[in-house]
Prior knowledge:
The protein has 218 residues and is of the alpha/beta class. The protein contains 9 helices and 8 strands. The two termini are 20 Å apart.
Amino acid sequence: MYSEKLNNLRNNLCLYAITDRTWLGERTLAQVVEEAILGGATFIQLREKNMDYDEFLKAAIEVKTVTDKYNVPFVINDNVDIAVAVGADGAHIGQSDEEIKIAREKLGPDKIIGLSASTLEEAIKAEQNGADYLGVGAVFNTTTKQNTRTISTEALNEICRTVKIPVVAIGGISKENILELKGAGIAGISVVSAIFAQDDIKHATCDLLKLTKQIIEI
């Protein structure tokens, strides 16, 4: 049963889009998420760092309405309680966030738990503690997260070879550099600005999906 869950998850992680309100402009969160999905995004994460509980809950409900419409997996960044409250597909937590075991107790056995990792040791520990997938990076320089160190393609490849759970590359990925990740063994890529900072989100996502399919391991 668990291997089936991992196989399904691996397929869904191809193009993992993380929201950011910075570039909304006149558009709503629901509109930009829908445009990304229509362009080919296969997984959506809601990431909000400066919202109180009620605002975050409202945003999560807004996004989940869209992801439910298109049957696209939806996870919440950092806030497991919000994930539980809206019935999201799971949560993505960082090394300094809630422990995986606590998150699993709150979410239940069938929900998805992702973890950020930047070293082989962190990746192994996350897998041992029950993470379903890893977001590994930053693989390139990024302005989305401050004080983020980059990892080499060789280090990314070593993590992919060592752990059995799917690995998604994250950090500074764009259509200009994505092909450099070919052969690393990743299940997909995770992006923010490469989708949500673009004027034509649907078109940008479509182009990115075509490139992603050239580099992922089937």
